[in-house]
Amino acid sequence: MISGLVVHFSEDESLTNAALIEIKAKANIDIGIQSERCLPIVVETDSIESSHKMTDWLFELEGVSHVDVTYVHLDE
Amino acid sequence: MQKSQSSRRDFIKSAAMASATAVAAGISDPSLPILSAAEVGDSGLEWNKAPCRFCGTGCHVQVGVQDGRVVAVAGDKNADVNKGLLCVKGYHVGAALYGEDRLTKPLLREGDSYVEISWDKAINIIADRIEGDPHKFAIYGSGQWTIPEGYAAQKFIKGGLSNNHIDPNARLCMASAVTGFLATYGVDEPAGCYDDLDECDVLIMWGNNPAEMHPVLFSRVIDRRSRGEEITLIDIGTRRTRTTTQCQHYLEMKGHGDLAIANGIAHLLIKNDTYNKEFVESFCNFKAPDSDNPNLHGKGISFDDYKVMLERYTPEYVEELSGVPADDIRMLGDLFGNPDIKITSLWCMGMNQHTRGTAINTLVHGIHLLSGHFGTPGDAPTSLTGQPSACGTVREVGTLAHTLSGGRVVANPEHRKHTEEYWNLPEGRINPVPGYHTVLMWEKFCTPSDQGGDIDTIWVQVTNPGQTLPNLNKLFNGKKELKEKFLIVSEVYPTATTVLADLILPSAMWVEKNGVFGNSERRTQQWFKMVDPPGDARDDTWQTIAVAHRLFERGVEGMKDKDGKFIFEVLDEQQKPVPIWQWENYYDTNVDKHLFEEYRQFTRLKHKDLAPYDEYVKERGLRWPVVQQEDGSWKETHFRFSEGYDPYVEPGKGMQFYHSSTKDDRAQIWFHPWEPPAEVPDEEYPLMMTTGRVLEHWHTGTMTRRIPELNRAMPAAYIEMNPEDAAAYEIRNGDLIRVESRRGVIELQAWVAGRGKPPVGTVFIPFFDETILVNDLTLDAIDPFSKQPDYKKCAVRISKV
Ligand code: SF4
Fold first, then answer.
1. pLDDT tens column, B434-458
2. How many domains does chain A have?
3. What's the maximum distance between 2 C-alpha atoms anywhere in chain B?
4. B19 closest CB neighbour out of A36, A39, A71
5. What's the domain range around A58?
6. Which one of B21, B70, B227 has the shortest CB-CB distance to A36?
7. Which CATH architecture best describes the domain B184-384?
8. Facing residues of B763 across strands?
9. How far is the CA of B662 from the CAs of B281, B359, B609, B659, B788, in angstroms?
10. CB neighbours of B96 closer than 8 A, spacing ≥ 6?
11. In this predicted complex, what is the ipTM?
12. How far lies B730's CA from each of B726, B757, B798, in Å?
């Protein structure tokens, strides 16, 4: 399961940096080029359910204000 | 093999990254999902555009098809609406086709079970029911009907059967917005569009939760903030939601407090002398309800009368009525009184599902007009719809019981004449008496025939009234005991409605058929069929035409035009009729295109002009009026009534409300008094209950509950409570609660301090769960003008089970 997401960071720099460190530590996330407060990422998971959990995890990060899903490949 | 799998995976990953990067960077040149031919070859996917199947936002998706199945969905970067974004529902929209229990065969009830029957037999059964008594037959449709589906149903019943008993579920969600626009501007639908969200300085959400209900629109606003723009967000609501957390101001009001708040703002604009005199003198009249003859015209009043009527709505009095502090009312008054900022108001169900829905809609338009916050990008009162084609199919095609296409009404002889001419029908074919609106239609259906229940057959298409009608025990479950009544349901999955159906017809959905939707911002969007429906499922338009043709074969006069030809006749290039009533021939031609081109003729009268079908094939939708330019191209309209934007405003007029009900190019500023809700808590039923939607599920959940990850995320309905109320009742998270109203009882789990936070004395229950029907509790009281029920306020009592 492969998804393209855009992570919107909050205005608090230290929270943003902390969130970024956590995101970078995930082996199944590819990081794209950040544009202002928006970071494109690709998440690869072994099921739709774990993809969903990953999106929830991103939402929960304190430095993240919003997550948009821009692409999903449904074929598990 | 290993290598090719890995290169495919790499390709998909690079496609995903390209789409996310394009969105993050806000670049206008899409790198995806319009793939190059080589890439398509590599991936084996074929991509095509479609609007999302779910909400009225009308996001466009790119749909990737492989081996006859939808396998990928991407936000469409070329679409103005969503600029490549999708919400969690849109992201899974493809999976909505593949629930395990798709209906694939026509099913006829035999006792307590169903038997599979042929389509031919099903069509005969419907034709028999209609022939039995054509005037006791009704169609109950939907804002999810495509434009051609709604148009075909409308022509069949109003033009073919001289029967106006057709109404859509949109009566339950936006009828009050319609009456609000009509009463104010003399013509329906918003003047502005989503561009207002990109331009406004202040966004006021009136009983609206776009963060969960129109997520992509809301993220468009949040995105502005992420880019450093300043925008003030104000949430006026009856409970805290995910929208509230993003707002600088949350104004918590009591039910119907909005009426008082709007009057309070108007009061302050006049008292502070900050209303826009020039705008008002040039472009507005004043109106108040006419108690002797209640209608949408009301009675004309002077500015001085208006002033007197508003006098009592001081901030302190408004605080008393609404619960919103007087200082917050002053803050709103100051914002509207400031000509240097741009204000957009957004609303949806909170203002529409309201027994004074027409009144509050007109009042919100009124404060925009009074303050002059109208007519330029970012200064607009804009209503949203919940369904993907509530505007296109219901409001524009005119599938309500009293309307005809293009803003016409059955009661107007001229309008009937136009319609009969466009349809080539004999004069007098269309019945001048409006049919039954939704609540009345179902009441008549659930009343024994010998007691005045004069609807004996309803054909439901693309909706789920067994879950969404208010007061279900009265308006739906009453059918159970009435053997003479017959319910036909065209559906894709078993639902709360099919439970009582006598005949179930399996339907094609979304990209299994051609379609055209019209979203909340006047945008008409077209797509083509991409995959086959499962089993014997067939298009709803085909179903309507097949029944019409069966009646034609039997000699039913109404199915003939005045030359004796079938009312849905479609000719091929040799001018020979294409037998579109036979399924095997239905896609020999593009029936949608034929119906759309016929319908398009209706759209000029009210300046809702549509372009030819083929223009929509090229575009990600166009906002009407779409007007042809000298060079032959077609141009959409972003803002109506405003010179420089709207091609129909005469030069030099500045602002021209050219469908004004007073025929003087002016809009009407209404006064309506505050009135209490139809039911309020009392000793017996001490809590106010409100109902609504959740992010993960779309409306009744028939599609989204079949998408495993959405269902796992939100598996069951719950009762949301304030912690103080929970403590008073000794209720904890997860406790099973019995909820009773004067109309019914349900049991469900408590969620204390959950996602939304109702104030003390209020509980919230979502309606997506067909196993816990909150509409067993709701009230069927309706707005007197729009006939829309109030799902947001009814009194309940609770106890721990
Ligand atoms: S916001 Fe509405 S139209 Fe857009 S993706 Fe979500 S459900 Fe679909």
1. 999 999 999 999 999 999 999 999 9
2. 1
3. 82
4. A71
5. 2-73
6. B227
7. 3-Layer(aba) Sandwich (3.40)
8. B689
9. 15, 18, 23, 9, 25
10. B53, B509, B510, B703, B704, B706, B707
11. 0.95
12. 6, 18, 11
